[in-house]
From TrEMBL:
Residue spans crossing the bilayer: none
Statement: the UniProt record of this protein carries the keyword Protease: yes
Keywords assigned by UniProt, alphabetized: Hydrolase, Protease, Viral release from host cell
Cross-referenced Pfam families: Peptidase_S78
GO molecular function: peptidase activity
Domain of life: Bacteria
Classification lineage: Bacteria, Pseudomonadati, Pseudomonadota, Betaproteobacteria, Burkholderiales
This protein's name: HK97 family phage prohead protease
Length: 220
């Protein structure tokens, strides 16, 4: 699962726990070098609607802490407009989140999603996210830098595939989603992962590299 976070207008939070905000915006290049294309969520929203399943509101992407549901989700010209309802009368965490949102202490929404279809511009290195599978949308403390700063601790095991080391691009993407600029990510990946791969290839052993990367953490 990947994450993207955005600021939302805390004035839209009412006393009943209903709030409105954008879980994603279209057309801008975010801190991870990605652009979400208008219509990217259409198929996922249609499939969820056909099954009669509502999207959960989570706290900081913690699957064990649902706080409510999104009553209405639609794509407009700006992005993914979402109306959520916190279960303030029944869930303690929802009451806490509601108070923090109204006070302006928590001002972010962050989507958890999978990439179904994308296109990489090899000249600009911008990736266009054409079709996304929306899993959940969380209330988070830190929105993604002005529009792209991850507010959760992430582990590189999200991009380790079948016990294989990530590509340089995958490692760069991971670092960008954790809050690094694209330039910083390229520098870290080029100087860190490349040397690690070269050393392990010379030793004929990649298991140590996998262990090191799997334990890699980016703190909040």
């Amino acid at each position: 699962m990947k994450y993207k976070s955005f600021d939302f207008d805390v004035k839209s939070v009412d006393d009943a726990g209903v709030f409105v905000g954008y879980g994603s915006v279209f057309g801008n290049v975010d801190g991870g070098g990605d652009v979400v294309v208008k219509g990217a969520f259409g198929a996922s929203l249609a499939a969820r609607s056909a099954k009669g399943r509502k999207l959960p509101i989570l706290w900081q992407h913690r699957s064990g802490e649902p706080m409510g549901v999104y009553e209405d989700i639609k794509e407009d010209d700006h992005g993914l407009l979402m109306t959520g309802r916190l279960l303030v009368n029944d869930v303690q965490r929802a009451r806490e989140a509601h108070a923090l949102m109204k006070a302006g202490a928590v001002t972010g929404m962050s989507i958890g999603y999978g990439v179904v279809d994308d296109l990489l511009d090899t000249k600009t290195h911008v990736r266009y996210l054409k079709t996304l599978d929306l899993y959940e949308t969380s209330i988070v403390t830190f929105p993604m830098n002005d529009e792209a700063r991850v507010g959760v601790v992430k582990s590189l095991d999200l991009i380790l595939k079948d016990g294989k080391l990530p590509t340089l691009r995958e490692f760069e993407d991971f670092l960008c989603e954790a809050g690094f600029s694209r330039t910083q990510a390229k520098a870290v990946a080029g100087n860190g992962l490349t040397k690690l791969l070269d050393r392990c290839e010379a030793d004929g052993n990649t298991s140590d590299a996998l262990k090191m990367l799997d334990s890699f953490r980016i703190p909040q």
